[in-house]
Amino acid sequence: VQLQASGGGLVQTGGSLRLSCAASGRTFSNYIMGWFRQAQGKERDFVGAISGSGGVTYYADSVKGRFTITRDNAKNTVYLQMNSLKPEDTAVYYCAARTNWEGKYDYWGQGTLVTVSS
Questions:
Q1: CA-CA distance, 12 to 59, in Å (whole number)?
Q2: What is the β-pairing status of strands 2-6 and 9-12?
Q3: Which long-range contacts (CB under 8 A, 24 or more apart) does 20-25 make?
Q4: What per-residue confidence (pLDDT) applies to 107?
Q5: Which residues of the chain have pLDDT under 50?
Q6: pLDDT at position 10, please?
Q7: What is the pLDDT of residue 24?
Q8: Quick check: 94 and 31 in contact, CB under 8 A?
């Protein structure tokens, strides 16, 4: 499956941004979709994930209550709604796909930069 993330940009502290990740190539609903981020000079961190049906979501503690992951399987797209953004949310955000909760993420998008100004 091919993944294309978009929607990054510059936003002020407290603002909102919605990222999208469009998938192509396989049956989208078969994949668990995850969001990750990597700040400059740091390791890539897990942000959250959503099940194939969209009924189950998980979030990192750092974003819980501020970020929401949804998906539209008819559009082969997963979204990351980010609210109450903080400067520490500044990072390149990546979407990824895997076929089960125990496996690794096999497919990755190219990343989209989110910059939160203070």
A1: 23
A2: unpaired
A3: 20/77, 20/78, 20/79, 20/80, 21/77, 21/78, 21/79, 21/80, 21/95, 21/109, 22/75, 22/76, 22/77, 23/76, 23/77, 23/78, 23/97, 24/76, 25/1
A4: 96
A5: none
A6: 98
A7: 92
A8: no
